[in-house]
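Section 5: illustrative case.
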């Protein structure tokens, strides 16, 4: 009886969490001129209308390029950081890990306001460099956490065996550690990419008239218009995020990717 009640509670929570998404998808096919539920008819016209919204398309391109750059930069920094934290034992190790992951504990709006104050004096508002640094402040903790977990699950005996046979540390890392970390690396890239691509609060404070991202463009769009086009774009984003998760699952497996 208790097991049935537990599964029923989990199912109810899933329905509650997914209800907004479930409602958005049929509304994206609405034939109405404004968002309303239930739709009076169904049409694909709002998906076709996306092609005419040059501002949204340009913002989507910016978000895609920015997410790719942030993913590469985050991986380049978080990989050696995770190696140092997991493999070396030194004074202040836990304090450094806590400092690197501290942005996850702070409200995003607090980070955004602090970055705004700093970037105003440095001329970084509305620039690629400013947005990249701001997004990396949020993505680095995810990268370090996932890679540290991945490293902690690797069999240390394999690396020790290679070292005992005369392999230098660089060769051990390149030929043993790195191949074993592939699932963790793939998971890190997927998570960091999605976090950067979907970031809205920090971007809202830092974008400019010449440079904006898709989440910010959608936020501004709904301030003045209430048509179902925003539901169509949101549905495409849901499908895009789901596709990345499915590719990750098919490629390396979700449980293996997160080091379980």
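Designed sequence:
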């Amino acid at each position: 009886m208790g097991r049935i009640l537990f599964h029923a509670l989990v199912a109810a929570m899933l329905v509650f969490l997914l209800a907004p998404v479930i409602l958005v998808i049929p509304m994206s096919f609405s034939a109405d001129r404004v968002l309303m539920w239930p739709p009076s008819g169904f049409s694909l016209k709002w998906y076709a209308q996306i092609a005419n919204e040059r501002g949204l398309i340009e913002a989507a391109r910016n978000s895609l390029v920015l997410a790719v750059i942030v993913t590469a930069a985050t991986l380049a920094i978080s990989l050696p950081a995770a190696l140092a934290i997991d493999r070396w034992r030194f004074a202040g190790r836990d304090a450094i890990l806590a400092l690197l992951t501290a942005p996850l504990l702070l409200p995003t709006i607090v980070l955004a306001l602090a970055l705004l104050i700093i970037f105003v004096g440095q001329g970084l508002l509305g620039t690629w460099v400013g947005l990249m640094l701001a997004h990396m402040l949020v993505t680095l903790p995810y990268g370090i956490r996932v890679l540290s977990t991945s490293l902690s699950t690797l069999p240390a005996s394999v690396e020790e065996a290679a070292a005992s046979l005369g392999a230098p540390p660089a060769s051990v890392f390149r030929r043993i550690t790195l191949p074993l970390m592939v699932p963790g690396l793939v998971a890190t890239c997927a998570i960091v990419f999605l976090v950067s691509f979907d970031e809205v609060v920090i971007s809202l404070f830092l974008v400019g008239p010449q440079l904006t991202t898709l989440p910010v463009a959608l936020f501004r769009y709904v301030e003045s218009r209430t048509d179902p086009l925003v539901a169509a774009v949101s549905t495409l984003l849901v499908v895009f995020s789901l596709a990345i998760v499915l590719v990750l699952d098919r490629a390396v497996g979700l449980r293996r990717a997160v080091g379980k």
